[in-house]
């Protein structure tokens, strides 16, 4: 039995790793949101060169006659991802080394999904879901991108698996605490899960026959506070006494997001427009904390003054978040929007004629995405009495509700695709063999 279990785990990990290595061959290095990747790579290289945790930026006003390039303490994003990519950077300066690390972490994520599925439902469904995830093209492509978002599935899946171990254990406080620590480390990769532990803590109270729910929720939050507290202490020291739990970005996301579908209400969309408006090349330096807080306050004031209009904006963002973007074909073709914006004579039919294979791939990805979402919803309905399934559903729900109030992109949803695929696999099983309530 142990041999069979280990064989299955090795099979899953091997398939996931091999599939992702193939995508590295096709998409080597930073070629998806290259600017973000480059900023992390630069910080990692500065650390290796003994300069410290710094970034090289221009802090002069745009109106200044000369540029003022200088090393500034890195505070605009959390520290977890720069230190993670230090590991392969010690061996090779090639970004492909980072992609290989991502592939290895993704292979481990597939194993965790299998273990999670066994805890939630049954081994057969867990095996099917893990196999689908191992070979899911959108996940494989995304998880070799040099972005912190790409490693988030490991932290989300591990957090849920540890929570389940705590729920099913009479003395599970250590598992709850470990879940909080893992979730906290995930926040140092990508801070958009900052409020997720509160969602999970509330979700615990809806589980029947779960021992130590109250203490477990406190242990979960304590684990998070421990990690985030250490990060906050570092930022407090690095900024000379300013409280910055993880990083900047909420202000600019909220402010620019108001104009996501067209510049309006005194805001603009795009970092270049923002730079011209504020008079600085960088959105985070100098005085990034103060500027970000001003942006956030101004954005909230605009939203409160136009609540009905902004509710409509959030509705428009939902398909943007849930629809796969151009990640799979960007190297070979522009996005449809870029093509149409390039010339007034360009049409959808002209795009299909010019880029038939990329257009077909994008259509297939879109169909796969929405089919998996519908199957996941079907699974939740058919298995609604299994309250443990509410936990992965809660994480998916969190990723939607936390991102549609701000500047939304499809890549923000990709980290929860493994959970969608798990529920979709269960939904597919329910279609073939309906569950009797």
Describe the structure.
The protein is globular and about 70 Å long. It has 437 residues and is mainly alpha-helical. Among the domains are: 43-93, no CATH class; 248-281, no CATH class; 307-437, no CATH class. It has helices at residues 2-26, 34-48, 80-84, 86-89, 95-120, 123-135, 137-142, 152-167, 173-187, 196-204, 213-238, 250-257, 271-278, 288-305, 307-322, 336-342, 348-354, 356-382, 390-403, 417-432; strands at residues 54-58, 69-73. A two-stranded antiparallel ribbon has the order 1-2. The chain contains 20 helices and two strands. The chain is 64% helix and 2% strand. The chain starts with a helix and ends in a 5-residue tail after the last helix. Helix 5 packs parallel to helix 8, helix 8 runs antiparallel to helix 9 and helix 19 crosses helix 20 (417-432).
The H-and-E topology, N to C, reads as HHEEHHHHHHHHHHHHHHHHHH
Helix-strand category: mainly alpha
State the helicity in percent bands. Answer: 55-70%
Shape: globular
Number of strands: 2
Largest sheet: 2 strands, antiparallel
End-to-end distance: 32 Å
Strand order of the largest sheet: 1-2
Beta-strand residue percentage: under 5%
Spans where pLDDT lies below 50 across 5 or more residues = none
Average of the residue pLDDT scores? 93
Number of helices: 20
Q: Radius of gyration from the CA trace?
A: 22 Å
Strand-helix topology:
Elements: H1 2-26, H2 34-48, E1 54-58, E2 69-73, H3 80-84, H4 86-89, H5 95-120, H6 123-135, H7 137-142, H8 152-167, H9 173-187, H10 196-204, H11 213-238, H12 250-257, H13 271-278, H14 288-305, H15 307-322, H16 336-342, H17 348-354, H18 356-382, H19 390-403, H20 417-432
Antiparallel strand pairs: 1-2
